[in-house]
Amino acid sequence: xxxxxxxxxxxxxxxxxxxxxxxxxxxxxxxxxxxxxxxxxxxxxxxxxxxxxxxxxxxxxxxxxxxxxxxxxxxxxxxxxxxxxxxxxxxxxxxxxxxxxxxxxxxxxxxxxxxxxxxxxxxxxxxxxxxxxxxxxxxxxxxxxxxxxxxxxxxxxxxxxxxxxxxxxxxxxxxxxxxxxxxxxxxxxxxxxxxxxxxxxxxxxxxxxxxxxxxxxxxxxxxxxxxxxxxxxxxxxxxxxxxxxxxxxxxxxxxxxxxxxxxxxxxxxxxxxxxxxxxxxxxxxxxxxxxxxxxxxxxxxxxxxxxxxxxxxxxxxxxxxxxxxxxxxxxxxxxxxxxxxxxxxxxxxxxxxxxxxxxxxxxxxxxxxxxxxxxxxxxxxxxxxxxxxxxxxx
Length: 394
Description:
The protein is rod-shaped. It is 0% helix and 35% strand. By secondary structure, it is mainly β.
């Protein structure tokens, strides 16, 4: 023991430079309090060590628990004064002897190692970047994976989802379009598709102007070239002069008009002196007579044409037409002519009950004179018309 004139006490050391210095092994069997700095260059062995203030420890081995800002740690290392053993209440962070981390706040890390199976109640807005299994997550670019992504909801319009196959889509919503594998695609808007699968039997209310291009069965549809098929084409109306319809035989033609006004029907389709003329054509010199029954789908306020004649095939025509819509009837007499540029017409002898079904009009389009009808308000659906036409041809 050495005591200097300055009041420094040394145990096992001569000329101590500090107030109290111990060199060698020391045993303290009761509590000890140090009010100032306490420095140990060796090891400290005992029951517990409490430090109130700053401390610097190097190569310290503690066989017990360490608490920072707490007097009763529940974990091997605990920062915080009231975190419970299960981490269900209080504030702080605890690390157990098995390596588990319990925190009452947000854990920010550049990388989480593992598959993340125990990370629950995740919200995409809380994930900025990282990797789970083979899936890369990055907030600007989204999710990148070489495998299938199973998700309840995919945010965005799907413009960057490429090479989709219908068999890979079970259900979901893109904008206002509902996709479901049993029922297909349901939308209140327009579906633009390269290919529509199936025979098109469930595609309703189609009008030619709404079809640009596509394939239904073995029939190719293209706005510029029309319909191309290797089979038989059955249609209520064929638009055009028929010049590109080849290999026609009379028995396949019921009624129609072709440029030049030439008609050739079997004798069985022409009857004189009988009520049963089979809707055929009677032509005497330059006067032609045609009668028949047709239908069209009315759309209130939408103008369509029910007859079209080449300007080179007639001079004047007269129509006697009976229109029929559920609960409505209308009869019209119409005289129609043209000057190759515009059309002229008049109606007379009009009868309707309880009100008109259509309004009559006419126009010239690409060298053809059209007889047009515009359904009145509330007229929507199948409309039938029976007609008798007299025609003075060239």
